[in-house]
Every structure is written in C-alpha cells, then in structure tokens.
C-alpha cells in the first residue's frame, strides 16, 4: 500500500516551540534528524592551505583539524569568510569557511560557549541558510549538523547546507545569511521505533487527571486543559531504546486512544519531541489505485488531531509522556499504530537568534542541455553538486520523483563519485528540479558519464549525449 503510505507520510503533527523538530522528522519524506556524515581525511598540503585561509588565532587546533577532515577534497574550493562573530545567550558564533555554486551553499561555523561547556555531547541545530533576498515561492532545503566538539576549548564545529530549487542564472558570488534559532545539546534522535499493536485491546485502562504540580511544562503553547492520562505500568514493553520505553497503551476514560511513554528522569521536555500517527488497516489493505488523496485525508483526520495532544508529567520519581488520538474502542479493528520517532533531550535548549550575513564566491560549473527522454532538461554540474532543472509538466514531475536514487559521476580513470540525493522541488506550471551533492569534488574536465538510477547520460568534451536507460 505504498501510495497510501506516501500520502500519510506527508501528514504529521507540528509543534511550535519544539526545536522545529517537525522540520527534521515530520517533513516531506520524513527527513530524519541530522546524523554525522562520513569524514574524508585529506592530504597535508590541503591542511596547510586551510591554515592559511583561516586565521591561526581564530580556531583551536581541535576545531581546525575537524574542519580539515570535514572539507576533505573540497578544501581547495573552500574560502575564508569575512564575517563578524555574533554573540547571544553567551554563545559566540563565527562563520569560518564556505563553498558554493549557483544553487548549493555549504558553510562551516565555530560556536563557542563563553560561560561553560553547554555545547558538549550530540547536538541538534535549528537554523537556516538562505539568500538575503530570497525569490518568492522558490524553496530552499536547509540542513544543519554538529560536526564535532573540542573539549579543551568548549567549541563546536557546525555545518550548514542550503540547496535552492531554482538555480541562479549565472555564477556570480552568493549573498546569503545564516540564521541560527537554537542549539540543542545532548539531544538524541528516536528513529522509527515499532509500537506493539498486539498490546492494543478494546479494554478501558486505568487513567487519572494529574495534579498541577505533577505536570511538567514543555514550552508548548498548546497546553491541554485538565488532561486525562493513563496510569503508568499497565502494558510495559521494551521499544529497543535506552531513552524511551512503553509504559501503557490503550483507551482511557475519555474515550481516546493513549500512548504513555517513560523517559529518563533527567530528560528535558522543552527540548524533546515524540510523535506517532494512527493509520487505517482498511486503507492499508487496498491496492494503490483504489486510494485517493481525499480518502487518505479523511482517515487521517478521523484518527488524528490537527495538533497532537500531549502531556508531560511525573509520578513516583518517573517522567512520563502521554499522547492521545481521537479514536475509540469501536474503531479497534481498523487501527494501526505507526512507528514512534522524534528526539529526547538531556539538556536545556539554548534559544536565541544568531544572524550572520555573508558573501561566498561560487565554484566553476557547466550547463548542459539534455536529450532523449530528458529533452528540455538542463543539467547544471559543478565540483560540488548536480541539479536537473526543467519546465514543469506532469510527466516530468513523475520522472523526477522516480529519480530519488543517488547518482554517480564517472571519470576517465574509471572512478565513480557518488552524489547524495537532496530531493526534488518544483512549482506546478513553472519548474521542477532535483538536486544531488557529491561526496568528493568532481573534475568536470574528466567527466565521461552521469548515472542516475536507470538513466545513463554520456558526457563527451563537456557536452551531454542522449540519455538512455
């Protein structure tokens, strides 16, 4: 029932003030919380060159080494950024290196805690890297991650990536701004934990209304008035995580389905988000052609609230999280629990606003019109990335969505450089595009072929031949 699942995957709760986790875990394609990327060690000559482009006094040796590793072969395309250090909430943020082409920008910044070591451990970042004057209606995919932490200096190396759905017409410098909204140290991703549907019965479980002193504020503006929650320990189950366990699952006295989870007592609700969704077994049983978007929306709204009712509370020294859904025992045979996902934080979030305007020179690139089944599409290649861009049509949109696989740039020496897919974007009636970022820099003069799934695009002397599969 892939079509139904795809439609449902786009219908998830969003919670204002929850570190914008919905953008990380409940957006299109259910993007996972950022994970550290593989680092590529580079030659000593690149490290030496890097030391020249970044002031020796600006970075600790630990951060300088992390930056060298993170840049890898892209070190020769990286440039020093002349931007002021900005300070908020006792955290100093300074952009130290960047590289870009006409549609992709990668920025590295150093964050230093001026008051302690709050940045230690795994860290998630809410921020955006965007044009200073973004064109209306054109989307930007932004990604932020912590590359590493230097315990000696209390500094962290942060990486920001921006991919524009509409490439610039030329290769002039990119004027952009980095905006960081909050830093969440010691936040750990909860990814796709199966919930035990077999524990769900039509029985009404014991429930209660927690006292005001038991309720733990989570910073949400949608507090549930006079909430009903399940009593802990009625259907305990291990979910395969040290950070979250099922305590009770079933229907409460309010006629709603509740999921009660236990998290470590030291967890911080204001930096944590746990989400799930109720689906329909009936729709899951139908073939793809039988499920319309209207049917999918109808069942989603039948079993899920627009905003997920949630309550954090304490009892007998434990910390619990109760979420509920507008489905009663009469719907039991049709209910299907989706996996649990989100994040649990063990430290307070650092919320502020760090804004850094910057200008980044772009790398050389090649623009090639494609032929064959991709006729009318332009391929824009740089050492950093590949984007396919064309006028919108229903056929092209379907074809571009099917090209979600990673790509490979094939060189004359027989080597292949992988490009990671960053998804597709478009505006009906205007354009459609798909973007990839290369794991290593691509020498455009040595390029002989681009492969994207079943598509093969031959390249001869910088000119694209007819695509075939």
Question: What are the defining features of this structure?
Answer:
469 residues; mainly beta; 9-stranded antiparallel β-sheet; 5-stranded antiparallel β-sheet; 7 helices; 28 strands; 13% helix; globular; disordered N terminus
Please give a structural write-up.
Strands 20-21-22-25-24-23-26-27-28 form a 9-stranded antiparallel beta sheet, covered by helices on one side. It is globular, with a radius of gyration of 25 Å. It is mainly beta and 469 residues long. It is built from 7 helices and 28 strands. β15 and β16 form a beta hairpin. Helix content is 13%, strand content 39%.
Low-pLDDT residue intervals, each spanning 5 or more residues: 1-57
C-alpha end-to-end distance: 27 Å
Shape: globular
How much beta, percentage-wise?
Answer: 35-45%
Helix content: 10-25%
Rg, nearest Å: 25 Å
SS elements, strand count: 28
Average pLDDT, rounded to a whole number, is 82
- Structural class comes to mainly beta
Strand order of the largest sheet: 20-21-22-25-24-23-26-27-28
**Most strands sheet:** 9 strands, antiparallel
Number of discrete helical segments = 7
Q: How is the secondary structure organized here?
A:
Elements: H1 2-9, H2 21-25, H3 44-53, H4 61-71, E1 86-88, E2 91-100, E3 104-113, E4 123-131, E5 140-150, E6 155-164, E7 174-185, E8 187-193, E9 207-208, E10 229-230, E11 245-251, E12 257-263, E13 273-275, E14 278-280, H5 281-285, H6 293-303, E15 310-315, E16 318-325, E17 335-337, E18 340-345, E19 350-360, E20 366-369, E21 378-381, E22 385-391, H7 394-402, E23 407-411, E24 416-427, E25 431-438, E26 447-452, E27 455-460, E28 463-464
């Amino acid at each position: 029932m892939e079509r139904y699942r795809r439609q449902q995957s786009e219908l998830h709760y969003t919670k204002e003030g929850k570190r914008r986790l919905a953008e990380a875990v409940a957006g299109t394609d259910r993007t996972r919380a950022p994970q550290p990327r593989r680092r590529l060690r580079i030659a000593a000559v690149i490290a030496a060159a890097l030391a020249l482009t970044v002031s020796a006094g600006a970075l600790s040796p630990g951060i300088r080494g992390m930056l060298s590793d993170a840049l890898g072969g892209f070190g020769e395309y990286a440039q020093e950024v002349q931007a002021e250090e900005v300070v908020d909430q006792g955290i100093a943020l300074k952009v130290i290196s960047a590289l870009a082409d006409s549609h992709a920008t990668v920025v590295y910044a150093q964050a230093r805690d001026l008051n302690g070591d709050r940045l230690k451990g795994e860290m998630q970042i809410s921020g955006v890297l965007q044009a200073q004057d973004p064109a209306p209606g054109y989307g930007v995919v932004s990604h932020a991650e912590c590359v590493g932490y230097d315990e000696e200096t209390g500094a962290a190396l942060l990486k920001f990536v921006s991919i524009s759905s509409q490439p610039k017409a030329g290769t002039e410098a990119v004027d952009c701004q980095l905006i960081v909204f909050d830093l969440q140290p010691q936040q750990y991703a909860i990814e796709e934990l199966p919930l035990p549907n077999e524990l769900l019965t039509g029985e009404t479980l014991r429930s209660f209304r927690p006292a005001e002193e038991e309720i733990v504020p989570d910073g949400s503006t949608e507090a549930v008035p006079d909430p009903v929650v399940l009593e802990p320990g009625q259907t305990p189950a291990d979910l395969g995580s040290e950070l979250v366990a099922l305590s009770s699952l079933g229907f409460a006295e309010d006629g709603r389905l509740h999921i009660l989870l236990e998290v470590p007592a030291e967890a911080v609700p204001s930096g944590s988000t746990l989400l799930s969704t109720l689906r329909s077994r009936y729709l899951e049983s139908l073939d793809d052609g039988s499920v319309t978007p209207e049917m999918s929306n109808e069942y989603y709204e039948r079993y899920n609230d627009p905003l997920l009712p949630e309550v954090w509370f304490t009892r007998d020294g434990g910390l619990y999280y109760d979420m509920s859904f507008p489905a009663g025992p009469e719907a039991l045979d049709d209910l299907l629990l989706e996996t649990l996902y989100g994040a649990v934080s063990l430290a307070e979030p650092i919320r502020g606003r760090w804004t850094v305007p910057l200008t980044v020179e772009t790398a050389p690139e090649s623009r090639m019109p494609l032929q064959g089944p991709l006729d009318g599409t332009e391929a824009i290649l740089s050492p950093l990335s590949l984007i396919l861009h064309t006028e919108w049509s229903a056929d092209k949109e379907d074809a571009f969505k099917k090209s979600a696989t990673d790509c490979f740039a094939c060189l004359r020496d027989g080597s292949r450089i992988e490009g990671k897919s960053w998804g597709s974007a478009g505006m009906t009636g205007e354009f459609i595009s798909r973007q990839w970022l290369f794991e290593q820099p691509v020498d455009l003069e040595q390029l002989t072929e681009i492969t994207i799934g079943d598509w093969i695009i031959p390249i001869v002397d910088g000119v694209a031949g007819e695509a075939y599969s």
